Amino acid sequence: MAIMGRPKIYDVDDIVTAFNDYIDNTEDSLVQEFAYNYGISRETLYALAKDNINLSDTIRRAIEKQEIYLLKQGTKVKTLDSNIVRLRLIQPCHNFQDKQTISADITARPALPPALEGLTADEIRLLISSIQPPTLLN
């Protein structure tokens, strides 16, 4: 049988002050990183923000600063890294963790539809180039 203590009471004003300091002094501000450094779970931080507009605004400010940082980084690099930057932009919107390992087998060839099996790459290119786009009727 687990003994449960009283829930910890947080000083939301102190959290807001510390969070604003973190945002002002960090180039790539992350809500998860602040929560970890402050010693609070991200879920608790969001729960507290539901009842406090200042904390809610501060979280939004951190996310917006991160988006700006990532957009600037994405425009500097024209490689696969810019795709990773775009992926990091959508993470806060979908509750992904800050660091995820994504792997893909890029050497695998997709299976061709049965009608195209046996055709060479040149024959498939010729077939695709001969397809006319549909026209719109008035």
Largest sheet: none
Structural category is mainly alpha
Report low-confidence residues grouped into runs of 5 or more: none
Percent range of helical residues: 55-70%
Keywords, please?
6 helices, mainly alpha, about 55% helix, elongated, about 140 residues
Q: What does this protein structure show overall?
A:
The protein is an all-alpha fold and 138 residues long. It has a domain of 83 residues. The chain is 57% helix and 0% strand. The protein has 6 helices and no strands. The longest helix is centred in the middle third of the chain and has 24 residues. The model has no long low-confidence stretch (mean pLDDT 76).
